[in-house]
């Protein structure tokens, strides 16, 4: 029915490090920070139901999944492209990617963090959250920036009196 990405292979020794270049500041992102950045990049393209799944105590395969949904294949591609380009700005490149040809499930593997970008109905079909139900889940919301508004008084006018 749906074409699923192949499971990515890891070394038997459990080593998950891949060479990445440092960003301009020389910072190296932790897996948790990278997962949060990926979630934020997905939200810039209006991804929905964004969840970070902490797998560190469950499997040696990866530390985190970032799972999100899209309403169209065009949106799946836009989210995947935003994640890819955003993470590249921090000096990390995807070790492996799959699903760009069908755009119903795109997988971007950053070794310690794997991003899953689904069409909504495909996500419901595979239900990764149920499969990894013993993990810790962090739901990421798209919070708009707080806008501080200040009332500006015209020069020379006294402040209005508040009714008692």
Task: Outline the secondary-structure elements.
Blueprint lengths: L30 H13 L4 E7 L9 E7 L2 H16 L7 E3 L6 E5 L3 E7 H7 L1 H4 L4 E5 L24
Parallel strand pairs: 2-5
Antiparallel strand pairs: 1-2, 1-6, 3-4, 4-5
Helix pairs in contact: 1-2
Structural account:
The chain has four helices and six strands; from the N terminus they run αββαβββααβ. The model is unreliable at 1-25 and 145-155 (pLDDT under 50). It has a domain at 31-140: Beta Polymerase, domain 2. It has helices at residues 31-43, 73-88, 120-126, 128-131; strands spanning 48-54, 64-70, 96-98, 105-109, 113-119, 136-140. The longest helix has 16 residues, at 73-88. Helices cover 24% and strands 21% of the residues. A hairpin with a 3-residue loop joins β4 and β5. The protein has a six-stranded mixed sheet. α1 (31-43) packs across α2. The termini are far apart. The protein has 164 residues and is α+β, with helices and mostly antiparallel strands.
Features:
six-stranded mixed β-sheet; disordered N terminus; 4 helices; alpha+beta
The proportion of strand residues reads: 15-25%
CATH superfamily caption of the domain at 31-140: Beta Polymerase, domain 2
Largest sheet: 6 strands, mixed
CATH-level-2 architecture of the domain at 31-140: 2-Layer Sandwich
Overall strand count: 6
Task: List the uncertain runs.
Answer: 1-25, 145-155
Biggest sheet strand line-up: 3-4-5-2-1-6
C-alpha Rg, in Å? Answer: 21 Å
Distance between the termini: 69 Å
Number of helices: 4
CATH class of the domain at 31-140: Alpha Beta
Regarding quaternary structure, what we see is single chain
| Approximate helicity band | 10-25%
Taken from the alpha-carbon principal axes, the silhouette is globular
Mean pLDDT over the residues = 80
């Amino acid at each position: 029915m749906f074409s699923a990405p192949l499971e990515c292979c890891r070394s038997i020794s459990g080593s998950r490090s891949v060479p990445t270049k440092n960003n301009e500041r020389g910072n190296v992102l932790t897996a948790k920070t990278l997962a949060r950045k990926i979630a934020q990049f997905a939200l810039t393209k209006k991804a929905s139901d964004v969840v970070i799944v902490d797998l560190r105590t469950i499997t040696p395969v990866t530390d985190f999944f970032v799972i999100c949904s899209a309403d169209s294949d065009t949106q799946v591609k836009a989210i995947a492209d935003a994640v890819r380009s955003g993470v590249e700005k921090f000096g990390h490149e995807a070790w492996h990617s799959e699903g760009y040809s069908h755009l119903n499930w795109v997988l971007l593997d950053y070794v310690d963090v794997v991003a899953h970008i689904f069409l909504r109905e495909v996500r419901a079909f595979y239900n990764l959250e149920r499969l990894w139900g013993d993990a810790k889940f962090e739901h990421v919301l798209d919070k708009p920036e707080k806008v501080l508004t200040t009332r500006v008084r015209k020069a020379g006018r006294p402040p209005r009196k508040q009714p008692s």
